[in-house]
Amino acid sequence: MKIFLETFGCQMNEYDSELIRSILRSHQHTFVENLDHAEVALLNTCAIRENAHEKIYHRLDELKGRKRRQKNLVVGVLGCMAQNLRQELAEHAPIVDIVAGPDSYRRLPLLINSVRGTGEKGFDFSLSEYEAYSDIAPQRMPGVNAWIAIMRGCDNFCTFCVVPYTRGRERSREPQNIVAEVHRIAAEGFKQVTLLGQNVNSYRFEQHDFADLMQMAAEVDGIRRVRFTSPHPKDFPRKLLHTMAANPKLCKHIHLPLQAGSDSVLERMNRTYTKQEFLDLVAEIRAIVPEISLTTDVICGFCGETDEDFEETLEVMRRVEFDSAFTFKYSERKHTIAERKFKDDVPDEVKLQRLTRLIDLQREISKQHNAAEIGKIFEVLVEEPSKKNPHEWLGRTDQNKGVVFWDDAVKPGDFVQVRINAAGTNTLRGTVERQGWRRLPVTAVEAECCAI
Ligand code: 5AD
Ligand code: SF4
Fold first, then answer.
1. Which ligand number lies closest to the CA of residue 167?
2. List of long-range contacts for 437-443, beta carbons under 8 Å, 24+ apart
3. CA dist., res. 408 & res. 362, Å (int)
4. How many of the other CB atoms lie within 10 Å of CB of 238?
5. Architecture of domain 2-124 in this structure
6. CB of 299 closer than 6 A to ligand 1?
7. For residue range 398-413, what is the model confidence (pLDDT) as tens digits?
8. Is the CB of 232 within 6 Å of ligand 2?
9. Residue with CA at minimum distance from ligand 2 atom 5
10. Domain 377-448 has CATH 3.10.180.10
């Protein structure tokens, strides 16, 4: 069967789509890039906020029209939204033939066959305590970075979050199995690996913790950079910081979700840390890994958030000065603790005003941080042509900052030294420094110019 697979949402979903490709290919299905050529259309979905659901419903509307013309097109909704809405999704979107949650991908070949064979719809929402797809080699698109899920699920139950309900209980994969996957991707030519988990701090397999795993991944020849996302600020492993400081392959970037700055909001969110504990952690991270870049996630307008609570979030952001932040309006999710326990009582226009203030503040901070990089030279891993201008390259520094530059002698996967000469809010811009070229430090250049 010819399959079209579209992925929505986070990196974990990207990784899951690679697993799905592998499972279906091993059953002789093929993949097409163009929906016009597809016999099966699969959407791998996200449920984290309402706008994620809206996107999928919109796509399903488009598929409805297509199904009128192509009666035997099989439509499947997979992943978090499938798990979250289950029967309701099938009822509201009668064109959907298959609904399968994140632990049901092994059953996809069976579900597809049965829809094609008998016309009977196939649903599978069983969540497993063990499924980690460890024996399946993901089918990756060629590139520079490879994702590896080192664990699945989440046991934290932050009250706003749907993930514990859509992805089920937390389980860690065996380290030897993960390291074997790192060897495979190195052999395939990937230069960077990003280890994924909903909360990597709680990775544990027998006597191995997350810091051990990072170290093991870094030891694989051919892999030049190891990244991870995301840790939880509670019980952040100090050992991980020392491991990061000691190993140049471990990238100096931590995505550390703050979510909110007020203790009462943090408590209602069940984040299990206070504002001061978060600030202390940031100070410790910076003391142990001084060159670290910190980024974050922030939610505004959570249940009961007052103006004063929100000011505390802004205060933490001013004090920490993250390099960048993903900022969100609170979006009530089905089945979560917040939905059952609290009232979604911050009016939407207040959420929007607060979101605008978060974005404005972060833009200011990012701009200042980026401007401070002008004149410095960074090792940049070349990723792909820049989206804005395909005649330029986009690469990333160790700290995960995007750098745009032009050079006709490089290709994706190369490492180049780039001197930064301009900075915006989101990206840096620079020129490649070649060995053998005499380059003076900026201050010396300025001094020379002044002397002339
Ligand atoms: N509403 C808004 N943002 C949310 N996030 C998770 N759940 C919600 C929600 N219900 C955000 C958190 C999380 C990021 C992935 O998405 O900030 O860290
Ligand atoms: Fe959701 Fe909290 Fe788990 Fe992150 S740690 S996935 S925010 S429940």
1. 2
2. 441/375, 442/374, 442/375
3. 34
4. 13
5. 3-Layer(aba) Sandwich (3.40)
6. yes
7. 999 999 999 989 999 9
8. yes
9. 156
10. no
